[in-house]
Fold each of these.
Amino acid sequence: MTMLGAGNKLSPLGLLSLVIRRDLVLAMRRRADVLTTLVFFVMVVSLFPLGVGPELDMLRKMAPGVVWVAALLASMLSLGRLFSADYLDGTLEQILLAPQSLSLLVLGKILAHWMVSGLPLVLIAPVLGLQFDMSAQALWVLIAALLLGTPILSMIGAVGAALTLGLRGGGVLVSLLVLPLCIPVLIFGAGAVEAVSTGMSVVSHLSLLGAMLLLALVFTPWVTAQALRISME
Amino acid sequence: MAINWFKYSAPSAFYGLAGKLVPWFAWSSAILFAIGLYISFFVAPTDATQGEAYRIMFIHVPASILSMFIYLIMAGYAALGLVFNTRLSSMMATALAPTGALFAFISLWSGAMWGKPMWGAWWVWDARLTSELILLFLYFGFIALHASIDDPRRADRAAALLAIVGSVNVPIIYFSVKWWNTLHQGATIKFTGTSMHVAMQQALWLMMLACWCYVIAVTLTRVRSIILERERNTQWVAELEEVRS
C-alpha cells in the first residue's frame, strides 16, 4: 500500500476510489477467481431444473428463490478472497496502521469486492431468468432487487470474513455465521420478484431492501473494521 | 460503608460465590420441576379443544421464552466484556450459549410434537417457528466461532462482536419472516383470548421458574469450569482444595 503514503492529502472520496482501483487491478490480474464465482452461480441455477423437472409453470414459480439462493451461496464462496490475500502478504497490517479511517478503507474493499463478485451475478441473472421462463417485467425487478441486495450480502459477509480471518476451516465457518444474518435480504429480494406474478406491490419490497442497504452501508464497514482489529491484534 | 461493586467481577472471587450458589439453584430447580410437572400432568384439567396434547406447552413455552432471553443476556454479557474488557463477562457469555441453544432446540422439538396432532404436520413455515430456527442457527454460529479460535481473548472478542451483530439483526429477521409469512399464507393458529385455567397458569409459572433456576445452576457450573480452565496457571487455582487433592 505504498499509494497510501501520499494519502494524507486525499479527500475521503479520493481515498475510496484509490482503494477500489487497487483491488480492481488486483482482481483483474487474477481473472480466474472472478470467473469461478460466476460459473458456480450459473451451474447451481442450472442444476435446479435438472433436479425438479422441466415443467415451466413450476420453474417460473421457483425462479426468484432459486436465483437468490444461488446468489447467496456464490457470495459466500467469494468471501474468502475479501481479506485473505492482503492478510497473507502483510498488506492488511499496513492498512490497519494507516492514518486514514479504517472504516473507509474497509468500505472501499467491500465495494471493490462487490464489483468483481456481485455485479457479474446481477448482469448474468436475466439470462438465467430466461431459462426459467420469467416475464420481462419480472426480469427487470430481479435486476433491481439484485442490484440493491447483493451489496448487502457483500457487506454482511465482510463482517464474517473479518471475524474468521486466518482460522482453520474458515470457509465453512463464515457461511455458518453469515447465512442466518442474510435471511432478510433473501426474503425481500425473492419476494420482490414474486410480487410481480401475484400482482402485489413491488415497491414495498424494494424499499425495504433499500433501507437495509443504507443501514448496512452505515454500520457494517465500522463493525468490519472492529472485527479486523480483533482478528489482527 | 463503601461497597465494592466490582468484587465479584474477578474470576477468583466469583468462582467461590458461584460454587456456593449452584446447590441452591439446582435444588430449587429440582423441587420446582417436581411440583410444576405434578400440577401440569395431574392437576391441570384437560383442554376443551386441544385434549391432552396441550400439556406439551408446559415445557414448550418456558423453553421458547428462555431461548430468546438467554440470547439477549448472552449478547449483553458479550458487550460488557467487549467494552470494559472484563474477562468474567465473556466467560458468562460463553457459558450461556450452549444452554440457550439447548432451549431453542427443546422449543423446536416440543413444538413439532405438539404440531403433529394439532396441525397435522411436524413442521409448518410459521413466522415464529422459522425465527426460532434461525435463532438456533445464530447460537450455533456463536459457539462455532468461539470454538474455532484458539486464543481465548480473541475468541471472546470475536464471538462478542458476532453476538452483538446478531442481536441487532434479530428484530429485522423476526419482522421479515413475519411479513414473508403473511404474504404467503393467512395467519395460522393463535391462542387468542383463551382465558387459562388457574391450575394451568400455576403450572406454567412454576415450570418457568424451574427452567430459570436450571439455567442459572447450569451456567454457573459451566462458568466455574471455564474459570478453572482459563486460570489454570494462576496461584489461586493451584491453592484450591479441589485442585490440590
Amino acid sequence: MEIVVCVKPVPDAETRLRASPDGTVMDSEGVKFVLTGYDESAVEQALLLKESVPGSRVHVVALGPPPRTEEVLRASIALGCDQATWVETPAAAVPEPLVAARGLARAIQAVPHDLVLCGKQAGDDESGVVAGALGELLGVPDLGFVVDIRWDAAAGRLRIKRAAEAGQETWEAPTPCVIGLQQAWNDPRTAKLPAILKSRKAPIGKAAAGEIPTGSGRIVPVKFELPPPRTGAKMVEYKTPEEAAQKLVRLLKEEAKVFP
Amino acid sequence: MTPTTLVIGELHQGHVVESTLEALGAASAVGATLEEVTVLLMGSGAKAAVSELAQHGARRIQLAEDSRLDSAPVAASAVVAAATAQTVGASMVLVGGTTFGHDLAGRLAARWNAAVATGVTEVRRGTGGIEVRRPIFGGRATETLRLEGDRAILALRPHSFTVPDGPAGEAKVDPAPAPEIPPALLVPRRTGVEAVTQGAGPSLGDAAIVVSGGRGVRAPENFHLIDELAASLGAAVGASRAVTDAGWRPASMQVGQTGRTVSPQLYIAVGISGAIQHLIGMISSRCIVAINSDPSAPIFRVADYGIVGDLFQIAPALTNEVKRARGA
C-alpha cells in the first residue's frame, strides 16, 4: 500500500505566544517548530499500516517555509517514513489552510497514493479543514476524527474507527481515500538516535506549491490577541461543605449566569 | 438574487442537533432576516425534523431525502450542499463545529476556492468581508480574520451562539436539488455506532457543562462522586490524563492536549491540579470552577471560582445543593 502522510510544522506547546509587531498574526521569531500531536498520530498510523501490510511504503509530504518544514520532514523520516517531499513556500507567514491543501494535493497527485493521512487539525490554527479539502481536490472520500485504521486484505477494504459526537463509529472504505487522525490514541513512537542521525542526510524531494486560482476567496488576518491574564479564582470562603456548595451555586446563578 | 445564508443542518437520531440551531442564531446575529436564511436537511429523517426547525424560526427549508446519505461519508453530502448553496445564491454557508461540519467545510471550501474558518465564536459583517473571531492554540490565543470573496464558509464553535426561540411559524419547504453523486463517494459506509459508555449524560464534545475528575479522586471506585455531580447538572463527565492513564476511565473521556478540547459554558475541575496539558483542553471554557485541596494548585490561577477543600466532602454537598436548586 502506498501511504502518503501530510505533516505541518507547528510551534512547540511550550512556546510563549506573542503578537507580531503589527498585531495581526503570531510572532514566529525565535519560535521552535515541531511535529505536533495530531501529525505524530498520523505518522504513527502510517507506520503501523506499513508494518502490517507487506510491501507498503510511507511518503511524508509537508508544505511550508524553511527551515521548519524541512525539520519536520526529517523528524518523520527518523520515525520511519521512506520518502519525503517538501512543498516549499517562500514567506515565513503560515499559508491559509486551503492554500496549504492545494499545494499538498498537487504534490500528492504526482506520486502513488492509496491512502492519504493527516492530523485531523494542526495544533496552532486548529482549522481542521485540510482532510476534507484534500479529499475534494483529489476527488476521493475523506473521514476525519479517526482513531484507528486496519487493512482488511480479504475484503480489500479499510476498517476504520472514528470518535464522532454520537460515539465511536465504525466505517469501511475502499482506497484511495483521505483520513484525518485524532491525537495520541496510538501512543506514537519516538525516534532512535541512529535514525535521527541518518535522517539528516536523507534526500528530500521538492515540489512547487502552484498558483492560487483567480477569483479565490482570501483570508486576511486582522488581529492576534492573547487573552487577558486570568486574575486568579474568586475563592469561596466557608465553614461547612454545605455552605461552600450554597455559595458556589449562588455565584454560578447570579454572577456567572451559567447555572442550568 | 439577494445574497442569502445557507445553514447546513445535521440530524442525530431524528432530531436537529444543537449546533444547527445555534447556526440559525449566528445567521441572525449578522443581520440576516428569517427569509434570508435557508436550512438544508439531508437524509431519510429530513422531513420529520422540519417542525422542530420551524419552531426555532427557520422559514426556508430544503430537503434532500436521500437515504443513501444516512451512512455515506460527508463527501456525498457535500455534493448536495454545494448544489443547494448555488440554487439559493448563498454568500455565507454555516455549519456546526462537529465532525460532520469540519469535514464539510473543508470540502466545500476546496470545491469553491472559498475562504473558510472553523471554530468561530463571533461573526460580523465588516467592510470588505465577513469578520470572524476564533480561539487558536487550544484557547491560548484568539485571532480575528476577514474572509473575502463571493462566498464564505463558517463552522461555528459549539455553544458560542444562542439558539433562537422562534418566532415559531410556518416554514416554506422545498425539495433540495438532487445532483448526481459520483458513485465512488458513496462506497465508504458507516457500519456501526458504539455509543460512548459514559452514562446517560451528553457527550463531551457538545455538552454545555463538563465536570471532570482528576488524581484527587484517588481511586476508580470514588469516581461516582464526579458522575453524580455531573448527573445533577446534566453535564458530561471528563477526566484528567492521570485518570485515563491509570485506566480508571476510558481514554475517550480525557480532556487535554492529548485528549479532547472542550469549551463548555461551565467547566468544573474536581481534584485536578491543572497541568498545562490539561489546561490546553479546557481553558476556553466560559466559566471555570476548581475544587482542590491544595490552595497553591495551578488550576486556581485559571479558574473563575475556587473552593479549597476535600472533594470527598465538597462534591457530595454540591451535588445535593444543585439538586435542591434545580428542584429535583
